[in-house]
From TrEMBL:
Keyword Nucleotide-binding set for record: yes
Superkingdom of this protein's organism: Bacteria
Keywords in alphabetical order: ATP-binding, Nucleotide-binding
GO molecular function: ATP binding
Domain ABC transporter residues, every copy: 5-238
Organism: Paragemmobacter ruber
Gene3D superfamilies found in the cross-reference section: P-loop containing nucleotide triphosphate hydrolases (3.40.50.300)
Name of the protein described by the UniProt record: ATP-binding cassette domain-containing protein
Pfam families: ABC_tran (PF00005)
Length: 263
């Protein structure tokens, strides 16, 4: 069966410099959630930019349903792939509803105005992110967490096949972090997201891609990759699993190595 998303030895770097990311090969079935983790500077955001077609691979290729992303036109790609980035616009003189409505733009032709279907899609997206009561608020007056939820709602209004999220829980309080993770599991979309919080990654991801210095250090089932013996050398810390009661779930704790704390 053809993977829904596939990277074939994909990499990127500036034309006059060393690679930022190299030789990433991964295949993701439709509806699976892939977590991309690793230290700062590991290449996570660069990898996501390849997947949502912001950067064209310098080496290898990225495919959606067996088609090279760069064989698609921009509109077709935008109808299939939505991205939620860490950077949040804050100076738009638009309401939350108008921001979410921007997600419908790839599906429109010319200067076509909103139809009933577009309005219904936008309303559903607002409701799913608990934003219906804030729909007419100016976007620039919203808190960081509210803006983040609006950007996720805009991505859902795009009705994509593939959703890419770069640190989507940034700015969110604990309640909305949990609600967002539950929503992602419920969407049944193919999802690629980067996360710093490895325990959140463990809770939501079917598989994990661990990057270090622009290269893949481990990939596979979540429990296999988020293993203390694998994570410790990559992050330069001691990792210990703890069993939480009463849920019985494993929780990772992180500690500086003794030699790094000695004076």
């Amino acid at each position: 069966m053809t993977p829904h998303l596939e990277l074939r030895a994909a990499g990127w770097g500036p034309r006059r410099g060393p690679p930022v990311l190299r030789d990433v090969t991964v295949a993701l079935a439709r509806g699976q959630i892939l977590g991309v983790v690793g230290p700062n500077g590991a290449g996570k955001s660069t990898l996501l930019r390849l997947i949502y077609r912001f950067l064209q691979p310098r080496w290898g290729s990225v495919h959606l349903d067996g088609r090279d992303l760069w064989a698609m036109g921009p509109r077709e790609a935008a109808c299939k792939i939505a991205a939620v980035l860490q950077e949040q616009p804050s100076d738009f003189a638009l309401t939350v509803r108008e921001i979410v409505d921007l997600g419908r733009a790839p599906h429109r032709r010319g200067f076509g105005r909103d139809g009933a279907q577009d309005a219904a899609v936008v309303s559903r997206a607002l409701a799913r992110l608990d934003l219906a009561a804030l729909a007419d608020r100016p976007f620039g007056t919203m808190s960081g967490g509210e803006r983040q939820r609006a950007m996720v709602a805009r991505a859902l209004a795009q009705e994509p096949e593939l959703l890419v999220l770069d640190e989507p829980t940034n700015h969110l309080d604990i309640r909305h972090q949990l609600e967002l993770l539950a929503l992602l599991r419920d969407l049944r979309l193919t999802i690629v997201l980067s996360l710093h919080d490895l325990n959140l990654a463990s809770a939501v991801c079917d598989s994990i891609l661990l990057l270090q210095d622009g290269a893949v250090r481990a990939q596979g089932a979540t429990a296999a990759v988020l293993d203390p013996a694998t994570l410790g050398p990559v992050f330069g810390v001691t990792v210990r699993p703890e069993r939480l009661a009463p849920s019985g779930r494993d929780h990772l704790t992180f500690h500086l190595n003794p030699q790094e704390t000695s004076s």
